């Protein structure tokens, strides 16, 4: 296994990350920048914190949440039965805007998965969420930082405008560089199924795997 690479943060941003981790370790919810959009972060293994995220968004309880990992090496901690194709995709697109739906391991509780036996995992290409998950020692939720049905936020100012004081902290690292949702790809079966097409195109996935991608 390759060693974990260091994550470079300027001092002011590193201080914000430390405060965010302090909140999350106590069951808090913070809004954070990612490579795609601003997201609502809570410890994905803390059911009460995850429930707060559902409440803040007004998200239906039956909808699973994407989960962000600190490093690609964490894949096997929270997923099981990972196919070679899934590993190829992780190697090709992580860190990056591709969420892989995989069978969850016993380390991933029901809360973020809405009781399903699968979980959508991603390693974002942004140092803030990765540093938070690494310092917290747990994966974090990665749902967008906006009320359900409202436009996604790409800046801290937009998060504050839409959510006000509903979160414990907004980490401000400027505008999200991609500004588009991740692509969500189900890799649990014999074929690849794009549940949401976002920043990674179906063509790119097909090129990387040599397999067609179904779109429901």
Q: How would you characterize this protein structure?
A:
With 216 residues, the protein is an alpha/beta fold. The chain has helices spanning 11-25, 47-57, 75-78, 84-93, 110-113, 127-136, 156-163, 202-209; strands at residues 30-32, 39-41, 67-68, 79-80, 98-104, 118-122, 140-141, 143-144, 169-170, 183-186, 192-196, 213-214. It has one domain: DHBP synthase (Alpha-Beta Complex), CATH 3.90.870.10. It contains eight helices and twelve strands. The strands form two sheets. Strands 3, 4, 5, 6, 7, 10, 11 and 12 form an eight-stranded mixed sheet that branches. It has a four-stranded mixed sheet with strand order 8-2-1-9. Helix 1 (11-25) crosses helix 6 (127-136). The longest helix is centred in the first third of the chain and has 15 residues, at 11-25. The radius of gyration is 16 Å and the shape is globular. The N and C termini lie far apart (35 Å). The model has no long low-confidence stretch (mean pLDDT 95).
């Amino acid at each position: 296994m390759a060693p974990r690479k260091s994550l470079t943060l300027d001092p002011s941003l590193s201080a914000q990350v430390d405060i965010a981790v302090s909140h999350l370790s106590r069951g808090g919810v913070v809004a954070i920048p990612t490579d795609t959009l601003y997201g609502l972060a809570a410890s994905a293994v803390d059911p009460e914190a995850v429930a707060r995220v559902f409440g803040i968004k007004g998200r239906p309880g039956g909808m699973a949440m994407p989960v962000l990992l600190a490093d690609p090496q964490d894949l096997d901690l929270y997923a099981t039965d990972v196919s070679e194709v899934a590993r190829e995709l992780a190697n090709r697109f992580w860190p990056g805007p591709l969420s892989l739906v995989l069978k969850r391991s016993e380390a991933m509780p029901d809360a973020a998965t809405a009781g399903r036996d699968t979980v959508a995992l991603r390693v974002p290409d942004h140092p803030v969420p990765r540093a938070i998950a690494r310092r917290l020692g747990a994966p974090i939720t990665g749902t967008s930082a906006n009320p359900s049905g409202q436009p996604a936020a790409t800046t801290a100012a937009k998060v504050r405008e839409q959510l006000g004081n509903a979160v414990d902290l907004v980490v401000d690292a400027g505008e999200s560089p991609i500004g588009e949702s991740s692509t969500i790809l189900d890799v649990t079966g014999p074929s690849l199924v794009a549940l949401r097409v976002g920043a990674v195109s179906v063509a790119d996935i097909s090129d990387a795997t040599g397999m067609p991608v179904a779109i429901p």
